[in-house]
């Protein structure tokens, strides 16, 4: 269940259809997928990808995406602070950044420049595609991170962050979902 927040306006929206419309109006794809499988910590990447194949496969074919994998971050992840820092500063990518949240959660921040910064809390079942060239940053939290997400790529090399060095993310570092 996603939550959209616009901190400067004090706006918070948790209705999935309203969120979908909000993002689609801005050229950002948002969707929700479901599956009947409950994963435990030992679930393999292959098991997770197979469980979502009915949604994943047509999405990849339609979008021309070539590869998918599963990323897992939790409180046992080594060097978490360094991993967090890498995506906590505003950046862009040369290809879409697509994440489907199998479990856990994380906050995607968007700076479209023509309107106030907004963010999307992504949780189990949420799919977001950050368009290539869009200024954004990501946070899974300062402590106790938990993210299990499918990543979908055309070419994994496009996922390198190009930092804007704007420092804008600093204005929102104390943000908490109410
Ligand atoms: Fe990114």
Fill in the keyword field for this structure.
single chain, 178 residues, alpha+beta, 5-stranded antiparallel sheet, globular, binds fe (ii) ion
Give an account of the 3D structure.
The longest helix has 11 residues, at 53-63. The chain has helices at residues 16-24, 45-51, 53-63, 80-88, and strands at 3-6, 11-13, 29-32, 67-73, 91-92, 97-104, 106-111, 118-122, 126-130, 135-139, 147-153, 162-163. 26% of the residues are buried. The protein has four helices and twelve strands; from the N terminus they run E-E-H-E-H-H-E-H-E-E-E-E-E-E-E-E. The protein has 178 residues and is α+β, with helices and mostly antiparallel strands. The two termini are 15 Å apart. The strands form three sheets. The protein has a five-stranded antiparallel beta sheet with strand order 2-1-8-7-10. The protein has a five-stranded antiparallel beta sheet with strand order 3-9-6-11-4. A two-stranded antiparallel sheet has the order 5-12. Fe (ii) ion is lined by residues 87, 91, 93, 97, 136, 138, 161.
